[in-house]
Design a protein that fits this description.
The structure holds 2 protein chains of 2 kinds. Chain A is an alpha+beta fold. Helices cover 36% and strands 21% of the residues of chain A. The radius of gyration of chain B is 16 Å and the shape is globular. The chains are: A alpha+beta, B mainly alpha. The interface between A and B is large, with 38 and 40 residues.
Amino acid sequence: MAIIASVALLITEHRSHRLDSLRATLSVLVDPLKYLVDLPTVLIEQTTESVRSYSTLKKENAQLRDEQFIDKTRLLKFESLEKENIRLRALLENSFKLGEQLLIAELLSINTAPYENIVVVNKGTRFGVHPQQPVLDANGVVGQVFRALPFSSEIMLITDPNHAIPVQVNRNGLLTIAVGSGQLNRLNLPFLPNNADIRPGDLLITSGLGGTFPSGYPVAIVDDFTPMSNKPFVNITATPKAMLDRNRELLIVWSDSSPVSLTTPLSEKPTESPPHDQPAGTGTVGNSLPAASGSARNTPAGINRDDKSAGSGLTHKTPVAEQADTDNDE
Amino acid sequence: MMNSYAGFGRIFLTIVMAMCLRITPWPGFLSGINPDWVLLALIYWAIAVPERVGIFHAWIIGLLTDVLTGRVFGQYALAYSLIIYLCLIMHKRLRQFPLPQQSLFIFSCLLFSQILLFWLKNIQHPTQLHASFWLPVFTGTFCWPLLYTALRRVRLSRRTK
């Protein structure tokens, strides 16, 4: 009986996603254990936080303030660059993906599978986490949500042997795929020909192909390698930028993963600032969706939505569409 | 017998503790050799109180372990129910065995479970095998005498009440 039942379960799970709800229900029973096991780490962390001396805190504070100052100055430039980018893309009738919503999730220090690079974090479907969401940390891409349960979710790191991430070389835009090696400090780039223009120290960023990862996030840095002339492909390795074995805080990202089409800008357009809306609207009005063109003309609504529309483009599409309809009627 | 109702609490608690041990992060290389505590605890209870631990219990606990460790559904459920079936059949003989001989049996049980897990994993997608994949089998065998005495104490402490 038990054998038949388990085999049936194995087959159904392998073939379909019908058992996800059962897993979610059972996970409610089991998830408290994960938090229980994580408890000592949290407690130790809290005690060390609370017994930190005044001078250390002061030093850390000053350091953080400096860092923030530098980051802010960089962001000043970033803003103008972003606007320029939007303007240029509008000229090309290309849509620009803006605004990704982030959720900070904390790693639960538990070890579920010793030989797989899968970690568990403390945010689940209750926070709207869903499978295949990209996960980042402050330095780069960490992985993607593999399975979302109500109170926790499993994240497959980019170094998992079953994980591959589409990347491009930041220097020249060369596209390739980085495959996990199973070791936390190594990625493989197995699909590059021998004469590929890639050098040690090159930064690999996400290319945005495949739709899972938003483009432009740093992934890894190419290691030293020696081209072998007797083989068609070189086996290049790279070191992930993200601190896969050290960070406790991770960022789960919401981004509109619908494919970017060249002629129909998405409704994320309104997040542009008003002065640059005009060229965008006029440039695309002929062959774009009513939603996009309407919202581009309607600048006040665009500004109001600025903070909200980040990430959850889908939910905010409806008011935009209504706006557009009324515009067209007039 | 005195241990007709209250025994469940103890068994339940030890299983929960075993599950906690299963997912505890050990530093460095120790995490790779963390044995399957849940299976060891289940085997002990199946041998000690076979009227209390059945195949169905093993199956349910296996299912929970599947969820806990994020495996494909039914993987541990299958392994656990098969091994507990074996233990239930042989429990009278196993009780007579001295500890080293018992450990040998435990070794084969753990090995069987590990082979089964690897086989199921390989069906889903081809995987390469690390030599360290088999280490939990050995550590589990070495932990058995310890676990046996500990759980025996747990079981007998309530019987003396």
